[in-house]
Amino acid sequence: MGFRKFLPLLILAMSQTGSAQSPTYGIGRTPTAEEMRAWDISIGPTGKELPPGQGIARDGAALFVQKGCAGCHGRTGSGGQAPTLIRSDGTTKNTLSCLSPCVNDNNVMALRSPYATVMWDYINRGMPLGKEQTLKPDEVYALTAFLLFKNGVIKEDDVMDAQSLPKVSMPNFKGFSMPPEEWKHGVPRLKGYPRE
Fold this sequence. Notes:
Blueprint (H helix, E strand, L loop, with lengths): L1 H20 L11 H7 L14 E2 L1 H10 L2 H5 L35 H4 L3 H11 L10 H14 L9 E2 L35
Antiparallel strand pairs: 1-2
Helix pairs in contact: 3-7, 6-7
């Protein structure tokens, strides 16, 4: 009988303790400016975040072999288990099953990007597999130039750097569109979704 009278007071006390902690949960800390810079490595379409450096396709071809890219993507950039990076000449047959989602000659990764800076960003942050973010900026520029050249987007001697890379006209640029208006926090991304 005494516990039943005590129960509402216990619940009230617990809810006040919980609400006092809810804004921060009492866990973690605010990251330092240096920690934020270390995580903020994304490169936008304009390329304003690109670091100094440069590269050409010839250097990228050597790096493709040296860094082990062929082990996953195939000796010629196609025919491996990882996404196709270079459209095949029709003589390369993939005997391995393609990882899902399958990126092959019908949708070559290097040609699908709307901006060349997307390629640089992906290589810089995610390659080589298992050794991510170990490539130097010059190496990333060279690998990007190699893929762009092998897919017929730039010439072999075109130098890719922070100024030239954002200006590269990608074949699928018009295949992508930006949202009609900037998204705001708390607003559904698709008008009328989810339906109530």
